[in-house]
Give the backbone structure.
Amino acid sequence: MLNFNYSVPTKVFFGKNKIDLLAENIKKYGSNVLLVYGGGSIKRNGIYDNLIEIFNENDINFWELGGVKPNPRISSVRKGIEICQEQGIDIILAVGGGSTIDCAKVIGAGFYYNGDPWEIVTDPSKIEDSLPIATILTLAATGSEMNAGAVITNLETKEKLGTGHPSMAPKFSILDPTYTFTVPQKHTAAGTADIMSHIFEVYFSKTKGAYVQNRMAEALLKTCINYGTKALQEPENYEARANLMWTASLAINGLLSDGKETEWSVHAMEHELSAFYDITHGTGLAILTPYWMEYSLNKKTVDKFVEYGVNVWGINSDNDKYEIAQTAIEKTREYFNLLGIPSNLSEVGIEAEKLKEMAKQATRRGKLGNFKPLTKQDVLNIYKKAL
Ligand code: NZQ
Ligand code: ZN
């Protein structure tokens, strides 16, 4: 296990009616709030009305930035910063999924940056501080509610890039699983695939001796497998939604990754799909993952795939190593199909002609990952297999 410093500064209020704690926690930071939300789901499911009532009852002043799109745009970030500067905002409250939360985080950091906020996306070292961020999560997927990262898209330059700074970690997050009852099937599936991918990105690692991280990762993977399909069949199953929600946060808050060398190559490959085709993040990950696994399977990595197959999928450990590995990969693919996610990039509108350019972009900062380092040609090969 490698050395690490572990700190998750975000307070989590988890469970039904935890919204009751909103006003008192906002007021610790002030009474001028920028409310950030997406395309209107919170207006349809009643969360918005509830918030306005709470703000009015508690003398909280609020300004709104609605319409944040999936794969949030830098243009929304710019608008948000303007409101914060004009209105003397004390705290930014993001209500939604990862896109809304990420947008809020970069608004918070952009507020203190003297220049265009795209510069702090391309170069996170320029971030010095952020306005306080709080979140009310409505979709179990990215884990943005409990980490310091954000991913922003620039449509003009066709770039989707991750950034982050400790000051961008939410001060508190309200996680009420009932808020995810209205998440449509497509996003429930994509969210589950995203959580699983976050776990794969840190589970498949060359670091030895991280036994506890590996066993926790397997437990979280099994939770996704158990409850992902259940949430699709029964959207209002509290147990399923609650387990997925907490798993989403735990999967990418450092618990599984600290002490290990990590991978993140499937995410880097997917970000290009979203940047070029604006597809749903989790859908792209689910399509690429089994192809990445097949491509990464070799003499050096096979034991890790055996560990995965035996401990997560319950495959007989007496079988031949490669047979276990291949069965595990096939089971992964079948599970994503069971969630209703297609197996090929062409099924989500991705064309052969852009693959080369995307592979080039994905590797612009060098090879991807450590478990099986990927060159531009490797990335292109994986894209082609996935087509
Ligand atoms: O916009 P609204 O109307 O709210 O609808 C959203 C959106 O259409 C809908 N939705 C969310 N909650 C709902 C709901 N619909 C009905 N009922 C509800 N309760 O779901 C759609 C997708 O929302 P979005 O926020 O885009 O999804 P997600 O949470 O998957 O976020 C994806 C973004 O996060 C980034 C991704 O790259 C992508 O841009 N990521 C952020 C990470 C982080 N900050 O740590 C890590 C991830 O790996 C990921 O890259
Ligand atoms: Zn992700």
